[in-house]
Amino acid sequence: METYDDGVLTPDAIQAQLAEAERLSTVAWTEAEDIPLWMYPVAGVWFAGVMTSLRLMWDNPWWVVALIILLTMEGAFLGWLTKMRKANPRLRTMPPEFKEAVTGYFVGLIVVVAVTMLLISVSPLGGFVFGAIASTVGFLVYRAHWYRAVDATRARVATP
Amino acid sequence: MALLAGADDAEFSFIRDHLDVSDSDLSKQMKTLQEAGYVEIRKTGHGRNSTTSFKITKPGRKALTSHLAALNELIKQAEAATN
Q: How do B7-11 and B39-44 pair as beta strands?
């Protein structure tokens, strides 16, 4: 590290420290490992299952059992994901590049849930199929936006 | 500390790999940070399946913010002195 004769850091060395701190603060976001691609359609079917169970349990309480099973599966998946990724990105310190992807995810989630719930009321099977396809497509679009944000963040914090 | 600031928590191996430091160096630094109250250490599992993860505390986040602000201030002063 570059210092003056009295050991004080030079402005360049301080800038380098600040740049490194900025880069490290984004690492949990940019280096999060992706899940295997086949998990996206599985997640889509799972999500459609949750929405179908939620909607149908109004008419038949036995659907609660399906919902409990699906939520238990989610718990197991999240446990596995945390172990696999080794670091959990903190939403409150999200790099600005990720805002579009994360906002889009939640907006898309609301739209898919609303339309799927409506369709399930008319045709449970049709709603389930729509929910599974729409969720899978939504997850894949989110993934694409996420990796675009990763590239943009890496480019911003890259040290020369 | 900056790495932990961007994460809810992070495992030992993740931090070590991204900081490019040895196991013993990281252990020592984390112990010092824990003693200062800047980092919380959580150990789960046993034997080969055990994992150690770290989480920055509120005082730790505050200290990091102050440190970065002080560095930025130094840069400002250096720039003012050269202009």
A: unpaired
Contact B2 A31 (CB under 8 A): no
Q: Could you tell me the residue range of the domain that residue A24 belongs to?
A: 11-157
Nearest chain A residue (CA) to B2: A25
Residue A2 lies in a domain: no
Residue A149 lies in a domain: yes
**A92: nearest CA partner in chain B:** B6
**Residue numbers in A near B7 (CB within 8 A):** 27-28, 87-90
Which tens digits make up the pLDDT trace of A95-112?
999 999 999 999 999 999
Domain count, chain A: 1
ipTM score: 0.86
Pairwise CB contact (< 8 Å): B78 & A11: yes
- pLDDT per 10-residue tile (average), chain B, 83 residues: 93 92 94 95 84 94 94 86 76
Q: Per the CB < 8 Å rule, is A26 touching B75? A: no
State how far the Cα of B7 lies from the Cα of A66, in Å rounded to an integer.
33
